[in-house]
Amino acid sequence: MSTDWKSLAPALERCPVIPVLTVRDPAHAAPLAQALASAGMTLLEVTLRTDCALEVIRIMTEAAPDTCVGGGTALTPADIDAIIDAGGRFIVSPGAPSELLAAGASAKVLLIPGVATVTEAMAARNAGFRFLKFFPAGTSGGAAALKAFAAPLADLVFCPTGGVNPENLAEYLALPNVVAVGGSWMVPDKLIKAGRFDDVRDIATRAVEQARSYNSAIRSSTRANRS
Ligand code: 3PG
Question: Which terminus has fewer CB within 10 Å in the chain: N or C?
Answer without folding.
Answer: N
